[in-house]
Amino acid sequence: MAFQVNLADFEMHRTLGCGSFGRVKYAKYKQDNKWYAVKFMKKHEIIKLKQVDHINNEKRLMAQISHPFVVNMTGYAKDDHYVYIVMESITGGELFTHLRRARKFSDDQAKFYGLQVGAAFAHCHGKNIIHRDLKPENILLCPNGYSKLTDFGFAKIIEPGTRTYTLCGTPEYIAPEVLLNKGHGKPVDWWTLGILIYEMICGQPPFCDEEKMLCFSSFLFGVRWHGLISVCCC
């Protein structure tokens, strides 16, 4: 469970990455010498880009989630200039990097990671939270080889029997009902998991094109099933 922390209790080290609102730093908690990732988000950038509700929503949703296959938020803080989110430090890199290096995964590898993402989704859906932005870049690998789902920037609480109509997600992974504005809910996460499994096995998503509109329209005309997908992987 996440709780308010004192940033003075952390010893900041190298920068792990940068984003629209700030950066993520590798930090050691002085009380137990454990390592965490601390996200620094500039308040003036959040206000300038009209993302106050967006950031508050992400923090609120992450505080409700605790699962072995999710990058869990452990604390939060704020001062006059920044909002801080303290998360688990996952040092194995993005699944995207490993997949591009390998070009494609074996059936067993695809099932291994697919099951972990599915378990993370099931946990989130049990709390009526939909993720809506699965892609290889949003899966981090632990040193022991297991994976963790991250980036809840597009996540949303969706009550049973209701739908949401926000157009969001990654073009290659976006579900038809999202693009067609028919209203969507938990099933869109399972669609993205299917796309991820396909990409892990074949090396690219089933619907992809340099032109986004062609990418969006391709699933309306179907997809040619790749010969590299075996029956035992299904």
Automatic annotation (TrEMBL):
<keyword id="KW-0067">ATP-binding</keyword>
<keyword id="KW-0418">Kinase</keyword>
<dbReference type="InterPro" id="IPR008271">
    <property type="entry name" value="Ser/Thr_kinase_AS"/>
</dbReference>
<dbReference type="GO" id="GO:0005524">
    <property type="term" value="F:ATP binding"/>
</dbReference>
<comment type="similarity">
    <text>Belongs to the protein kinase superfamily.</text>
</comment>
<dbReference type="InterPro" id="IPR000719">
    <property type="entry name" value="Prot_kinase_dom"/>
</dbReference>
<feature type="domain" description="Protein kinase">
    <location>
        <begin position="10"/>
        <end position="234"/>
    </location>
</feature>
<dbReference type="GO" id="GO:0004691">
    <property type="term" value="F:cAMP-dependent protein kinase activity"/>
</dbReference>
<dbReference type="InterPro" id="IPR011009">
    <property type="entry name" value="Kinase-like_dom_sf"/>
</dbReference>
<keyword id="KW-0723">Serine/threonine-protein kinase</keyword>
<keyword id="KW-0547">Nucleotide-binding</keyword>
<dbReference type="InterPro" id="IPR017441">
    <property type="entry name" value="Protein_kinase_ATP_BS"/>
</dbReference>
<protein>
    <recommendedName>
        <fullName>Protein kinase domain-containing protein</fullName>
    </recommendedName>
</protein>
<dbReference type="Pfam" id="PF00069">
    <property type="entry name" value="Pkinase"/>
</dbReference>
<feature type="binding site">
    <location>
        <position position="39"/>
    </location>
    <ligand>
        <name>ATP</name>
    </ligand>
</feature>
<keyword id="KW-0808">Transferase</keyword>
<dbReference type="GO" id="GO:0005952">
    <property type="term" value="C:cAMP-dependent protein kinase complex"/>
</dbReference>
